[in-house]
Design goal:
With 232 residues, this protein is of the alpha+beta class. It contains seven helices and seven strands. Strands 1, 2, 3, 4, 5, 6 and 7 form a seven-stranded mixed beta sheet that branches. It is globular.
């Protein structure tokens, strides 16, 4: 084989190998789930600050505890932002399966539905800060690590906990934050907003088969679309 022929052979072999790898990647890679894509990159809680961060994230006592009459009016006439948490643990008793926490809601809206723990975003809070606070308040889990915003949903409910004869229902905008539990064996201690709790697997197909609420399924679909190997 001449020197020129050798060079041609090497180049052809390289191109053939590259083409084979490209074809294999298309044949065996999992198709991108565009229908459920949209999670934010890990570590980004979508906060934008136009001023001093410390000052802007200071939470006052008056913003924590709103008078009932005022909050009732807000629920009836305004859209409330609520941060919900997809709290994930590793269960050593089930071959280190990853699971998320659901709570049985004790009040409207969706009373009696297995839901994600969470609640109202306070003025001055980031989504991650709210996720830490609500995880602690509603489940007693303090050692948690917010990872990413899986998405933001606009939810409409025909009833609320503040319904009157003239005004019923509420609308909330809900960022769902993926939160990882740092202690898999930590005890869940519910507050009075929930009646029971349970852990379920992260497979959205399993959640659908078990008739979990569509909001929970949406969060699991978004997580799988972002990282199909997260539950591996």
């Amino acid at each position: 084989m001449t020197k020129d022929n050798s060079a041609v052979y090497v180049a052809a072999s390289f191109l053939a190998g590259a083409l084979s790898m490209f074809v294999a990647s298309k044949l065996f890679s999992k198709p991108e789930d565009r229908d459920n894509a949209g999670a934010v990159v890990e570590g980004n809680d979508l906060s934008l600050f136009y001023g001093d961060i410390k000052e802007l994230t200071t939470i006052t006592k008056s913003s924590k505890f709103l008078p009932g009459e005022l909050y009732s009016k807000m629920v009836q006439d305004c859209v409330i932002c609520c941060v919900d948490c997809l709290i994930v643990r590793i269960n050593p008793d089930k071959n280190n399966r990853k699971e998320c926490l659901l709570v049985l809601r004790g009040s409207e809206p969706v009373k009696g539905v297995w839901w994600l723990p969470g609640g109202r975003l306070l003025k001055g809070e980031t989504f991650f800060a709210a996720a830490r606070r609500k995880a602690m308040q509603e489940t007693g889990l303090s050692k948690v690590n917010p990872i990413q915003v899986l998405g933001i949903w606009n939810t409409f409910f025909p009833t609320s906990n503040w319904d009157t004869t003239k005004a019923k229902g509420t609308q909330t905008v809900n960022p769902i934050v993926l939160v990882e539990l740092e202690e898999s064996g930590a005890d869940v201690k519910l507050d009075n907003t929930s009646e029971e709790w349970k852990w379920i697997g992260l497979d959205p197909d399993e959640a659908i088969a078990n008739k979990e609420d569509k909001y929970v399924v949406q969060a699991l679909l978004r997580l799988r679309a972002w990282n199909p190997n997260y539950n591996a």
